[in-house]
Amino acid sequence: MSQTKHIEVDQDFIENLCDEFGNREGTVVQILQRIQEKYGYVPADALDMIGEYLEIPKSKMYGVLTFYSQFYREPRGKYVLKICVGTACHVRGAGLLVDKVKEELKIEPGENTEDMLFTLEPVSCLGSCALAPMAMVTDTAYGKLSPDKMLGLIKDLESEHLSASEPA
Amino acid sequence: MVKVFVNGVEVEVDSTSTILKAAEKAGISIPTFCYHPRMDPAGSCRICAVELEDSKRVVMSCVTPVSEGMRILTESAKVADARKTNLELLLLHHPLDCPVCDCGGECPLQNMSFSYGASDSRFESHRNDEVEDIKSDVLVFNSNRCILCGKCVRICDEVQDVHAIGFINRGFDTVIGPPLGKKLDCEFCGDCLEVCPTGAITDKFVRYQYRPWQLEKTKTTCTYCSSGCQMNVETEKEAIIRVTSSEGEGPNEGSICAIGRFGFSHVQSTERLNKPYARSFSRLVPTEWDFLIPELSEKLRAIVSTGPDRIATLVSPRIPMEDAYLIQGFTRRVLRSNYIDSGARYGFMNAAFPIAKSTGTLRPMVDHQDLLKAKVILVIGADPTAESNITGLFLKRAIRKEKARMYYVGSESVSITARAKDHIRVLPGGEGLFSWVLSEEISCQESGRHPEFLSRKEELFKSFNVDPQAYTRLVQDLREAQTAVIITGRVFHRLQFAYDAMESLIRMSHALGWIERDGCGILPLPETGNDLGVLMMGATYEWLPGLLDSQDSDNKKRWESTWGEPLSYGKGGGLREILEGINSGAIKGLISFGENPLSHFSPQSGVREILSKLDLLVSVDLFQTSLSDQAHYLLPAASSYERSGHVVSVEGFVQSLNPAMTYWGESLSDGEIVSRLSECMGHPVSSRLTSDVSKEIFTLMPDLSPSTRNGEHFMGPTGNLILPEVVSQPPHKADRNSVASRLSEKTKSVLSPIFPESIPGEGEFVFALNKSLFHSGKMTLLDTSLMKMESSALVRINRQTAKKLKIKKNEMVLIENSYGSCTLPVELTSGVTENELQVPYHFDSPDLLGLFPRELKYSGPCSTVTMLRTRVSLKKIE
Predict the structure, then answer these.
(1) Residue B535 in contact with residue B342, Cβ under 8 Å?
(2) Which of B153, B169, B830 sits opposite A66 (nearest CB)?
């Protein structure tokens, strides 16, 4: 598993965010979600900044952050491969998809590839059991997958990344 | 009121009461883990289960309210079964390592498991096997022993308002600890350690060093600050192992701060003086009391025989009333001198003198309970959490639970300012002017105001950045509030015009009718444990015991008849007059009881040279200090953990000190040293026993008889009640009627305006010395535990200023002015104004006092020595 450097959090971004939500009951989850939307995870520095700006105790925010599985405390890859391992997908071979990714990318569930391109994340149910076995990357769902199709998806994403990073 | 039956016993309780409270009233005890009387109920541990006879249901007694005719069974078979099952669930992760656990022997979980026979769990599941979190220097978190009752998290949130620890993760994986997996960073009050019902939180300083049942407990009063905390000093073989508190006991109700709970290692350090020393050929050599007392008496007698007022004494405001009483008696009767002063001269006198002058008492008008009832609280120039921790806790409770509106007036942010309704920022130096303007606005009709009022008010808004709207809200609130309290503290008392500022506040409280109205008044925070006590005992040149004017012939006569000998002392004086007297050669001898004037002046001020003119300098102290280099005699004093006596708290309670150890080495209490000298000089004392001196004081001044909060809890070292009749304890607060009759004639109606200190110019900074949360005076610098919490000085700089000067955290800066310079690492904060630098005053290096003016400066009619602020420039060291 690769450990990449934590990114530097933009102070102005956090301050604008804090101004938008303010220190009211129940804003912590939304603030954390917005931070994760931008950075892919919630950096520890961000908690320090919010804590100081809004005077919300860090211990309380950290409690929220660790309570919900939707939040990540470590940087994650550009493409998060959410592979459903719920009942229906499991029956139709979700395990084989996970194994294929593990073998191809040499990562364990929850880990990132060294180039920070992929993260493997088995999830419990994506709500489209008719398409089992299925996976989701960013906001796109891929249904009726097989290990080979999974491999193709990974290749597609890799080339998408390459073309995006090439100068126009 | 509703009637309920607990195990058949009928009790009548308030309709909002819970079953647990009803049972308590019926004298029936229900086991609890997560319940705590000072916090909101959580209902998380499920051990307080009881059965309702009618519905056969099992409910949690700590969260279930009573209803009319409810029949409750607290020990039925069903209840025992429920508790047993709950215990098995609580023990799910528990390693059952009682034999190596510090909590073993005083563990409610252990006791409960023994009572209900559930020492192991039937449930097999994923068992937590977390490694202990030993990152902190103070506390160890062992999450496997934790039953997640949440008491530690709640006391940190609800009582301390620090929020240092929280629940982490969810479900089975939940643990308790500081956020982000970092080292615990908090006020280290140790309240979480105190309330933890298992060994999940343990004290790292004494881990594995004791078994609770082998410790001997002594109940005594903490003398670091004036909160008057009741604490249990637990010793084994004459060594203090730990300090604990008992829930609900004393003014602190079970909370103690970091200094009180962890700061005792210095009194048993090898640095302690264990023998008296006498100077012989420029060296201090150990000697014996039996040689020393006659020799010293002879020297003193020789000086006294040349006339009155030739010898001065200085008294530490940490020593008990009894010792202060004996020292002032010795000074006035035996040494025939009125040159006597105490550490209250370093600031607190600026509050004490005007208050005592106008009200006739040093007992406060309001106490902590009044804070809880107050609608409006004005905190000005004070950091209650650091100066009187328990006052800080009650203040937080008043704001959080009682919704009091708190206004904070001052330049800096302290821990409580975030809770203020308005933090009225005044640039440093404007606090005095603020008090005068506020007082003038409220006390006088528009036509009767001082001609300079409007221009001064304008100056406050324009030059000192006071927000006019917040000011108007404060004026409005003070006028309308039925109950209001003003808290003043160290910064306020050390202002250049603190005396006048305090007079302004007194006049204002008079004008607002606060004197007659219960729950209103000023609460000045003394700086150390017994400032009030030593002043009441007359350890100051202004007053004889009982705050009687020392120059008044009637007062003199009264004490002459009490002591049975004539008093022939002269005018005398305080620290200023003493130093002047020594310099002019009029004063030949100085005895310092735990005081060190050198640590309150700039090293270039010439105090050392002045002291070198003395024929006789005696220093009585726990340790060698900078004064010892010059002392002719260095005498070892007993610490407050070793002596008995009484101290007066900020609320006016007179509480007892009880010895937890015998005197260290050959040390003696200050009172005993004085009694021996007195006897040897031909003035026998009636008794050397402290208890006899206490009796004498309480007979002469019956209103000073012992008193405490929650006296019913207060037990002596052997378990006997120290206060035999709790109900008849004397009032600790000032008597409003006598104050009212006195005040109407004593308050000045016209007060001339207070001049603010000048505003720092471009590139100039105000350098302020403040009190740390982890140190008390300089003595605690020898404390290994407290030094782990704060080991060196950091300078607090405003974040924006640092950004401008491109200074980052922990970088070194050079602070200098025409008097001196020093280098310090930086701590960034938004808590100070942009042109202010703050440093804790305790540390000896670097030389902070060297930045202060070299001339001996005194402020106000009381000639106080304040050393609060100076002007400097700031440079980053490349």
Answers:
(1) yes
(2) B169
Q: How many domains does chain B have?
A: 5
Share of chain B above pLDDT 70, in %: 97
Q: What is the pTM of this model?
A: 0.91
Q: Mapping DSSP to helix (H, G, I), strand (E, B) and coil, where does residue B599 land?
A: helix
Separation of alpha carbons B447 and B432, rounded Å: 23
Claim to verify: residue A161 and residue A85 sit in the same structural domain: yes
Query: Is B128 domain-assigned?
Result: no
Q: How far apart are CA A19 and CA B329, in angstroms?
A: 64
Same domain, B491 and B548: no
Encode pLDDT of A48-63 as tens digits: 888 888 888 999 999 9
Tens digits of per-residue pLDDT, B508-527?
A: 999 999 998 999 999 999 99
pLDDT in tens, B452-503: 999 999 999 998 889 999 999 999 999 999 999 999 999 999 998 999 999 9
B158-195 tens-digit pLDDT: 999 999 999 999 988 899 999 998 999 999 999 999 99
Q: B405 lies in which domain range?
A: 349-524
| Co-location of B422 and B456 in the same domain | yes
Distance from the B140 Cα atom to the nearest Cα atom in chain A, whole angstroms: 17
Give the chain A residue whose CA is nearest to the CA of B153: A59
* Of B614, B70, B16, B674, residue with least CA distance to B328: B674
Of A47, A57, A67, the CB nearest to B180: A47
pLDDT given for residue B728 in this prediction: 59
Burial state string for B315-333 with b = 16 or more CB within 10 A and e = fewer than 16: bbbbbbbbbbbbbbbbbbb
**Is A121 found in the same domain as A43?**
no
Radius of gyration of chain B (CA): 28
The order of strands in the sheet holding B340-342 is B283-286, B277-280, B633-636, B616-621, B589-593, B311-315, B340-342
* Residue A4 resides in a domain: no
Residue B386: what pLDDT?
A: 93
**A89 and A158, same structural domain?**
yes
Q: Provide, as residue numbers in chain A, all residues whose Cβ is less than 8 Å from the Cβ of B178.
A: 59
Q: What is the predicted ipTM?
A: 0.84
Q: Which residues of A touch chain B, with CB atoms under 8 Å apart?
A: 44, 47, 52, 55, 57-63, 66-68
Inform me whether the pLDDT recorded for B878 exceeds 90. Answer: no
CATH number at residue B163: 3.30.70.20
Once rounded to an integer, what is the mean pLDDT over residues B817-835?
Answer: 89
CB nearest B179 (choices: A59, A67, A68): A59
Of B215, B220, B217, nearest in space to B658 by CA: B220
Interface of B with A (CB under 8 A): 153, 156-157, 163-170, 178-180, 418, 830
Query: Mind listing the pLDDT tens digit for each residue in B51-62?
Result: 999 999 999 999
User: pLDDT for B23-45, tens place per residue?
Assistant: 988 888 899 999 998 888 999 99
Q: What is the mean pLDDT of residues A91-113?
A: 92
Q: Would A73 be classed as within a structural domain?
A: no
- Give the containing element (helix H, strand E) for B10: strand B9-13
Distance CA B828, CA B802 (A): 7
Task: Tell me the DSSP string of B782-837.
Answer: G-HHHHHH--S--EEEEHHHHHHTT--TT-EEEEE-SS-EEEEEEEEESSS-TTEE
A90 shares its domain with A136: yes
CA distance B710 to B729: 11
**For B361-375, what is each residue's pLDDT tens digit?**
999 999 999 999 999
Q: How far is A125 from chain B (nearest CA, A)?
A: 20
Does residue A5 sit within a domain?
Answer: no
In a domain, A74, yes or no: no
